[in-house]
Amino acid sequence: MKLITAIIQEDKLDEVREALTAAEIGRITVTRVDGHGRQEGTEIYRGQVVIPNLIPKVEIKIGVNETFVDITVDTILKAARHGNGKVGDGKIFITPLEECIRIRTGERGGEAI
């Protein structure tokens, strides 16, 4: 099992979510986060100019079985990229997921995902 964490631009959330649903990946967690990487200059957020100390982003977390890792990553890459790609499109992190437990049933491992 793997935990896939993607940090993407806010305007790409709907596209990524729809693409994941089309790829039959329906269980995701979305969190609003602030951060910055290589972005420079200014951004416009809610009508105000913001210097990119911390820029609003979206973090998506998805627990998947090994067979869905490549499908999930490829789907996010295609849907989150602006055109041919631009600074600030985001990052994807893949980390081992030691255990998953469904609280309702007590199922563990891949069945709980």
Structural commentary:
By secondary structure, the chain is an alpha+beta fold. The protein has one domain: Alpha-Beta Plaits (2-Layer Sandwich), CATH 3.30.70. Helices cover 19% and strands 33% of the residues. It is built from 2 helices and 6 strands; from the N terminus they run βαββββαβ. The strands form 2 sheets. The protein has a 4-stranded antiparallel beta sheet, covered by helices on one side. A hairpin with a 2-residue loop joins β3 and β4.
Summarize the structure.
Helices cover 19% and strands 33% of the residues. With 113 residues, it is of the alpha+beta class.
Strand fraction: 25-35%
Please summarize the sheet with the most strands: 4 strands, antiparallel
CATH class category label: Alpha Beta
Low-confidence stretches at least 5 residues in length (pLDDT < 50)? none
How many domain units? 1
CATH fold-level name: Alpha-Beta Plaits
Order of helices and strands: EHEEEEHE
What structural class results from the helix and strand content? alpha+beta
